[in-house]
Design goal:
2 domains, about 15% strand, alpha/beta, three-stranded antiparallel sheet, globular, Aspartate Aminotransferase, domain 1, seven-stranded mixed sheet, 12 helices
């Protein structure tokens, strides 16, 4: 509104992986718009998008389209229950707002629903095994992702898969944030652990509303016999955007670029914070790095408000509690400009007394710690 320009690392809360107004994606949407948006018959572009995802994602043999990530994770839970004939879901992390995931945490959801979705801590395989034993023969699936501080990886995911399969349960990965960022096929490709089901959204259409459940063909077949229906699953503009995104990833090293410029941002932010002795650390995965301010709890909110405000005033947009979402359009000069803006913000933090002299120990539980990203689904 005021003519300001920003280097943006919020990027629509994550879906923008190629860049705002990316030409080939916008052109694909315009071309499809000339043909139509929705139809009572199957658009060819829906088949093309499904084929592209099957080629790109290791676990994908069949695809079902949705509009948002929370809708996709809820549908995946229903598919898993239909496929196994069981009702209990074991979940680690944030899966969105549907009743399946928010029961017990939201007063609007009947509390009895909560007994069918039990939570465990990501990385705690002993706890997972105990829940599987306590609910032997009742668990349909284990849902998980990995913390964005990169503290867990293949060993945890493989262990969760083995435990789930030992108890006759399925393994489902939430790839809504990881997909098209850690690797084109998400954390399953990056870590080499293949789930039975997986949920994708965000980056698969560069901002157009699209999500998908993918998985083994025999499991996904149960989507056809369950009450899973959405009028806009075949909405063609988002599917055209998805095809264009997949084509761009096939023709360019998008993932390599995200890792390279993301590492440049992490290194720059950490160096600027160290220079001003502000207890800030950028950590995790370069394409989607997390940020931590280690301060006494009463200082965390004012410190973040000051940092975000001063960074924005200097032309860089970050998000507290979110991740730094890199795009294929970010260049070295953009990253360097943002680091300079953050450097000025760190100086403002130091001048306000938020410095290492008053910081807590990095392991102190009072500090702002990094956990699963509770972003919109």
């Amino acid at each position: 509104m005021d003519g300001n320009a920003y280097v943006d690392f919020v990027n629509g809360l994550g879906p923008i992986t190629l860049g705002y107004g990316y030409p080939t994606v916008d052109a694909a949407v315009r071309a499809q718009l000339a043909q139509g948006i929705v139809s009572g018959l199957l658009w060819p572009v829906e088949v093309a998008a499904a084929r592209g995802l099957v080629e790109a994602i290791p676990s994908a043999e069949s695809v079902r389209f949705f509009k948002g990530g929370g809708e996709a994770t809820a549908a995946a839970a229903r598919i898993a229950r239909a496929a196994t004939g069981r009702h209990v879901i074991l979940n680690a992390g944030y899966r969105g707002w549907p009743d399946t995931w928010s029961a017990g945490r939201d007063a609007a959801v009947p509390p009895d629903v909560a007994r069918y979705t039990l939570t465990f801590t990501a990385g705690d395989l002993n706890q997972l095994e105990r829940l599987l034993e306590e609910n032997r023969g009742q668990v349909a699936a284990v849902f998980t992702d990995v913390p964005y501080d990169a503290s867990l990886g293949a060993a945890y995911l493989d262990g969760a898969k083995q435990l789930a399969h030992d108890h006759g349960a399925l393994l489902c990965f939430d790839e809504i944030v990881n997909g098209f960022r850690l690797a084109r096929g998400g954390m399953q490709e990056h870590f080499g652990v293949i789930p039975d089901l997986a949920c994708f959204a965000k980056g698969m259409a560069n901002g157009m509303p699209l999500a998908a459940v993918v998985g083994r063909r025999d499991i996904m077949a149960h989507a056809a016999t369950s009450l899973i229906s959405i009028t806009y699953g075949g909405e063609a503009l988002s599917l055209a955007a998805c095809v264009a995104v997949l084509d761009t990833y096939a023709r360019h090293d998008v993932i390599g670029h995200l890792w390279r410029v993301g590492q440049r941002l992490m290194d720059g932010l950490n160096a600027a914070a160290a220079e001003t002795r502000v207890p800030f650390r950028c950590l995790g995965y370069p394409p989607m790095s997390a940020m931590r301010l280690t301060l006494p709890s009463e200082q965390v909110t004012p410190a973040w408000e000051l940092f975000l405000g001063e960074s924005a005033r200097r032309g860089a947009l970050f998000r507290r509690g979110g991740l730094n979402m890199m795009t294929f359009s970010h260049q070295d000069s953009d990253v360097d400009e943002a680091v300079r803006a953050a450097g000025g913000a760190f100086q403002a933090l130091r001048d306000a007394g938020f410095n290492a002299n008053g910081a807590t120990d990095p392991g102190d539980e009072r500090g702002q710690q990094v956990g699963p990203w509770a972003g919109p689904r």
